Amino acid sequence: MDSVVSDAAAYGVSPLLNDEKQLLDDEEQLRPWQQDRTRAPVATKIVVAGGFGVGKTTMVGAVSEIQPLQTEALMTEASEETDDLTGTPDKMTTTVAMDYGRLTLDDDLVLYLFGTPGQQRFWFMWDDLVRGAIGAVVLADTRRLKDCFPALDYFESCGLPYVVAVNHFVGSERFEPDDVREALTIPAHVPVMIMDARRRISAIETLLALVAHALDVTPE
Amino acid sequence: MSRTPNKLPVRGGERKPARVRPYSLTGGRTRFGHVLLVETFVAALEAPEERKELTNGSLNTRVMPEMRAIVELCRRMRTVAEIAALLKMPLGVVRVLLSDLADQGKIRVYGTGTAHGTGRPDRALLEKVLSGLRRL
After folding, report:
1. Domain range A40-79+92-217, CATH class
2. What is the DSSP letter of B90?
3. Which UniProt keywords are present, listed alphabetically (chain A) (predicted)?
4. How far is B94 from B21, CA to CA, in rounded Å?
5. Is the pLDDT assigned to residue B57 strictly greater than 70?
6. What rounded mean pLDDT belongs to chain A?
7. How far apart are CA B64 and CA B80, in angstroms?
8. I need a labelling partner for B69 at 20 to 30 A (CA). Which of A45, A215, B1, B100 fits?
9. pLDDT digits 0-9 by tens, B101-119
């Protein structure tokens, strides 16, 4: 989800304890590794990036074994050109929503998916997200191809393996992967594929392509 | 002669009373000693009934409701991102609170898929992920 909410102060401070019992009760089928506090499975992650409304939430939801959660990062807009932030409390902080999905791959291996807004002004989140990540899926919408430029620039600059997945929307003009590759100037060794973010199989194929690509570029 | 107008805008005059913002709970600290990536696992170290001492204590060990809520959630293996999502608190805040809880010995922070929480997953891990995805 891409929502940018600017009322960070709305976070409740006191009702946490009541809610949390509810949370514990509400959770869907528990995996064995969740209940064993003596050892943690290996956690690894893949970032799903792209422009607004390109299908990040849909893709995370299509593959996640849990109802996708939303994590928020608090952004302080202190870098704005004014020092006086106090007069505009609504502008002080922004929360950036990030989708969070999970796939248990083995008893001791869990893959997390993080769908994150691809706008340039959220790069502060990406630095943190890409640390230790397998790689990124950059979702592209051919009607708004420019929206994925910042994500591509970013992943190229930090050397994170990525694949480009064109999420074809109903009624949008079809393009061949090579046309998209050319338009985005994607190097030949980077996979560019057509996918349907709503379909689990299609989303998993995209993840497979990314992990295989990451393996290719990881030294022995 | 010009006289002082009756009303001048007062700088900060329209400022709303400060509400407690989540980050103010962290005392301004942004650094953390523990590697707390979004996918880092944490779990509580004690059984809930053994944590009576959490409710009192000196000023700097006094436990805020947020901290208690985190420890409660951590009765099960949790990730940093999951805690932030469930408690609807920003990631940065949760990181600082988790770091404090870890320092106090209330929770354990586990390592992630990369050797030191930095760098990239190695080939062995990528192979495992690949075969895990293929089995789905």
Report:
1. alpha beta
2. B
3. GTP-binding, Hydrolase, Nucleotide-binding
4. 13
5. no
6. 80
7. 18
8. A45
9. 998 889 999 887 675 545 7
Distance, CA of A181 to CA of A201 (rounded, Å): 23
Q: Which residue reads 């990881």 in tokens?
A: A218
Q: Please report residues of A whose CB lies closer than 8 A to that of B119.
A: 132
Q: Spell out which residues of chain B touch residue A137, defining contact as CB-CB under 8 Å.
A: none
The residue type at B63: V
Dist CA B27 CA B48 (whole Å): 26
**pTM of the model as a whole:** 0.77
Nearest to B129 among A8, A134, A220 (CB): A134
Q: Domain boundaries in chain A?
A: 40-79+92-217
Choose from B35, B127, B133, B134 for mutation: most chain A CBs within 10 A: B133
Residue range A154-192, pLDDT digits in tens: 899 889 999 999 998 777 788 899 999 999 999 999 999
Q: How far apart are CA B76 and CA A34, in angstroms?
A: 6
Domain covering B31-113+121-131 assigned CATH 3.40.50.2000 in the classification:
no
Q: Which amino acid is at A154?
A: Y
The mean pLDDT value for A197-201 works out to 95
Residue range B7-20: mean pLDDT, rounded: 55
**Domain-wise residue ranges, chain B:** 31-113+121-131
Shortest distance, CA A107 to any CA of chain B (angstroms): 10
Q: Per the CB < 8 Å rule, is A114 touching B38?
A: yes
With beta carbons less than 8 A apart as the criterion, state whether A102 and A64 touch.
yes
